Amino acid sequence: MTHSLWTIILAAGRGSRLASSTGGKCKQFLHHEGHPLYWRSVLTMSAIPELAGVVLVFPAHELDRCRAELENLKNIGDPGVRILAVSGGDMRQDSVRLGLAALPRDCERVLVHDSARPFFSAALVHTLLAGLTDEACGVIPAIAVTDTVKQVENDLVLATPPRETLRAAQTPQLFPTALLRRVHEQALAEGWAVTDDAGMIERAGFAVRVVPGETANLKITTPEDLRVLATPAPLPVPCTGFGYDVHAYGGNRPMVLGGMPIAGAPFIKAHSDGDVLLHALCDAILGCLGLGDIGEHFPDSDDKFENISSAILLSEVMDKARSQGLVITHVDLTVIAQTPRLAPHKTAIRGNVARLLELSDLQVNVKATTEEHLGFTGRKEGIKAVAVVTGARTPA
Ligand code: CTP
Ligand code: MG
C-alpha cells in the first residue's frame, strides 16, 4: 500500500461577508483567469509531485452543478490528479470532517486548504511537507502580525497579547490523516468550535509547527479583498520591425521617395508608384505586427494596386497597426543609391514620413548612402531602401 498525500479544498462556505459586492455569488465560484476561483487552488496543488488527489467540498445544493463544472474544467486542462467532489456542512469544521470521510484509506497525510486563499504557492506546500517530522503533529503557514492585537469584549479591551508572539495562520495546513480524523471525531463528540484545523490539534494536546506563510496568500473575505482579483491592465510589449526593398531603374514611374517626388532622378520599374522607401517602411511596420510582408497584403498581381500611391498602402498598414495597439516610437530609414544625390531631399522626406505616420520629425531619421560603385546600385541599375521601426504593442 502506498502512503499517499491528498488535499481537501474547502469550497462549501456561503461567502456572507462578501455577498453585498458579489450579488450573492459565493466567492469560491467567482470567475478569475477564466475559471472559478476554487480551480486555482486545484491547479497549484496539482504541481506537487507527491499529491495523489483532491477532495473538493462544495455546498450540498451546488454539488451536481459543481460536478458537471469539474468535468468541463478537466476537459479544458486536466490537472492529472484524482478529483472527488463531496457536500460540505454548516460550519467549516463540518466541511473538513465530510472531506476527511471521502479520503481513500491509504491517505497518510492531508493538506486542508481554504479555496478562499487562491494565491498560495507550490513552494509553500513543499515547505509544509518538509516540516512534518516526528516531532510535529501538524504544520501550518503563518505570518507575523503588524498591528497590535487586542482581545476585546463588549467594546472593552480585556488584554493586549505581546505582538512578537502572535502569528496570523493561513492554509494549506498539513496533518497526518489518522490524527486529524481522530481529533475531528473528538471535536464533534465534545462540541468544540474552532476556526482552523490546527486549533483542533492543539486543543487535543498535540504540537503544531509553524513555517513562514506568504503575504500574497490572502483569504478573500471582505469586499476590499476583491481588488486582488482585478486583472491588471496589460503592459505594452516593445517590438522592432525591419523592412527592405529594391526597385530597378529604367521603367516609366518618376521617382518618389517617402512620398516626395525626386525631380531629375532615373525612372523606376514598378507595379505601384515604386516608392522603395515607403515599401521598406510598410514591411518594417508589418514586422512589428507579425503580419508578414506587403506582398501578401497588396499583391502586384492585383490590378487595383497598379500605380497606386504608396502613401495609400502605408495608411492601410497604419490602420492595421492602430487596430493592433501598436504605438510607433521611432523610425530609422536608409536609402541606398549611387544616383540621384539625395542629400538635398532628406529633410523633406523626413518631414513627409513623420506626417504620414503622425509622428514628430524627431521620431524619424532619414539617411542616404552609396555603395561605392559596387553592385547593382553602384552600377546605377536600381535603388534600395531599408527601414527599422521600433514601438510598443499593447495586447488586446
Ligand atoms: N467553508 C466551507 N464550509 C463552510 C464554511 C466555510 O467549506 N460551512 C470554506 C469556505 O468556502 C472558505 C473557507 O472555508 O474557502 C474559509 O471560510 P470563510 O473565509 O469564512 O468563507 P465563507 O464561510 O464562505 O465566508 P463568510 O464567513 O463570509 O460567510
Ligand atoms: Mg465563514
List its traits:
5-stranded mixed beta sheet; Spore Coat Polysaccharide Biosynthesis Protein SpsA, Chain A; binds cytidine-5'-triphosphate; about 30% helix; 4-stranded mixed beta sheet; 60s Ribosomal Protein L30, Chain: A; elongated; binds magnesium ion; 12 helices; about 400 residues; alpha/beta
Provide a descriptive summary of the structure in words:
By secondary structure, this protein is α/β, with parallel strands linked by helices. It has 2 domains: 227 residues, Spore Coat Polysaccharide Biosynthesis Protein SpsA, Chain A; 157 residues, 2-Layer Sandwich (60s Ribosomal Protein L30, Chain: A). The chain has a 5-stranded mixed β-sheet with strand order 5-4-1-6-11, with helices on both faces. Strands 13-18-16-17 form a 4-stranded mixed β-sheet. Strand 16, helix 11 and strand 17 form a beta-alpha-beta unit. Helix 4 crosses helix 6 and helix 8 packs parallel to helix 10. The longest helix has 14 residues. 35% of the residues are buried.
